[in-house]
Amino acid sequence: MEKRSDERLGEQLEESTKEQVWELLRKVHDPELGVNIVDLGLVYDLNGEDEHITVIMTLTTPGCPMHDMIAGGVRHVLLGELGFTSVDVNVVWEPAWQPAMMSEEAKEFLGYC
């Protein structure tokens, strides 16, 4: 992936960078469900400044045994990409995740349709 530079940090590029981050996050799957965290609706927001990004997300349930694996996967796919040298993953429980937050593809895959 291409590295960001300060000269390119315009509003449009920020949106472009966010889109690239969303695509990278699609590589992280909930191993129990077999669906990526974006389509599951687990990622709530992205905040970034310079070479740091914070991913605000939830899990399907508090106490999810895959917490460390999923958060580690997020760090793994983002660290070193798009110029990010540090990645924080903030897992929040409000709003609580609900199946309605999934994409139509995820709902169909998991039999919610």
Which helices and strands, and how do they pair?
Blueprint lengths: L10 H15 L3 E2 L4 E2 L6 E7 L2 E6 L9 H12 L7 E6 L12 H7 L3
Parallel strand pairs: 4-5
Antiparallel strand pairs: 1-2, 3-4
Please explain how this structure is put together.
The chain contains 3 helices and 5 strands; from the N terminus they run H-E-E-E-E-H-E-H. It has 113 residues and is of the alpha+beta class. The protein starts with 10 loop residues before the first helix and ends with a helix. Strand 1 and strand 2 (35-36) form a beta hairpin. The radius of gyration is 14 Å and the shape is globular. 30% of the residues lie in helices and 20% in strands. The protein has helices at residues 11-25, 67-78, 104-110; strands at residues 29-30, 35-36, 43-49, 52-57, 86-91.
Quaternary structure state of the chains depicted: single chain
Strand adjacency order, main sheet: 3-4-5
Helical region count?
Answer: 3
Global Rg: 14 Å
Instruction: Report the β-strand fraction as a percent range.
Output: 15-25%
- β-strand number: 5
**Helix and strand composition category:** alpha+beta
Separation, N- and C-terminal Cα atoms:
36 Å
